[in-house]
TrEMBL record:
The protein's name in its UniProt record: SAF domain-containing protein
Domain SAF: 62-124
InterPro entries per record: SAF
Length: 231
């Protein structure tokens, strides 16, 4: 039998399965539609990284002992009366206690509110003590020269008067005048006894009841205080 001299045309490549092609097109469509989401995520990550890079560092802090709750004048401080907080250095008082153990056992000279830093000026000096049941209050009288006239051991009534001269009442009765510790040469200014470098007369230290100490602290803010020597 004679052979056909014209070769048969080449066969067309087989078509891919319909299912596989559909899945490929579907994935391409998903990726195309999600390109905006991916771009947004990338921008978010970049923005977060930039914010973290330019954020200012946290301010420096120092440990400061503060009152854990309201304290009356004459309170003997215990571990439960104080706590340590970290305050920014820029706002922390110049002279503070960093550890609760530094003040436990000391007594408050004036009422101290909750959260107020416990500084030396709020505490009774170690070498000043009144009779049992009393607390030590530092009082500045309206006439500064009075401080030099009162002698330790004397008893005084403390009278409060308005700036206009009207008597507002007696805020302490038979308060005992205590000796003032020698603060010459110290550098701890601003305490209960004031600044040792000041030329003003020091305050008078009086042994009074805790209630009288509170009354004195309140009266000192709005009234003029004067002593009356009594037997």
């Amino acid at each position: 039998m004679p052979r056909d001299r014209h070769p048969s045309p080449p066969l067309a490549p087989p078509l891919p399965p319909v299912g596989r092609a559909s899945r490929s097109l579907a994935w391409r469509a998903v990726l195309w539609r999600s390109r905006f989401v991916v771009a947004a995520l990338c921008l978010g990550v970049a923005a977060a990284a930039l914010t973290e890079a330019v954020r200012p560092p946290a301010p420096a802090t120092v440990p400061v002992v503060v009152a854990a709750h309201d304290l009356d004048a004459g309170s003997a401080l215990t571990v439960g009366d104080v706590e340590v907080r970290h305050l920014p250095t820029a706002v922390a008082p110049a002279r503070t206690y960093p550890r609760a153990s530094d003040v436990v056992g000391a007594s408050t000279a004036v009422p101290v509110g909750a959260g107020v830093p416990v500084v030396p000026g709020l505490l009774v000096p170690d070498d000043v003590h009144g009779p049992a049941g009393t607390v030590v209050a530092a009082v500045r009288f309206s006439d500064p020269a009075v401080a030099g006239l009162l002698r330790p051991g004397a008893h005084v009534d403390v009278v409060a008067a308005t700036p206009e001269g009207a008597v507002d009442g007696t805020v302490a009765v038979r308060a005992l005048v205590l000796p003032v510790p020698d603060v010459t040469g110290t550098t701890n200014g601003g305490g209960l006894l004031g600044d040792p470098g000041s030329t003003d007369p020091p305050p008078v230290l009086l042994a009074v009841s805790p209630a009288e100490a509170t009354a004195l602290a309140g009266a000192a803010a709005a009234a003029l205080l004067s002593p009356v020597v009594v037997p």
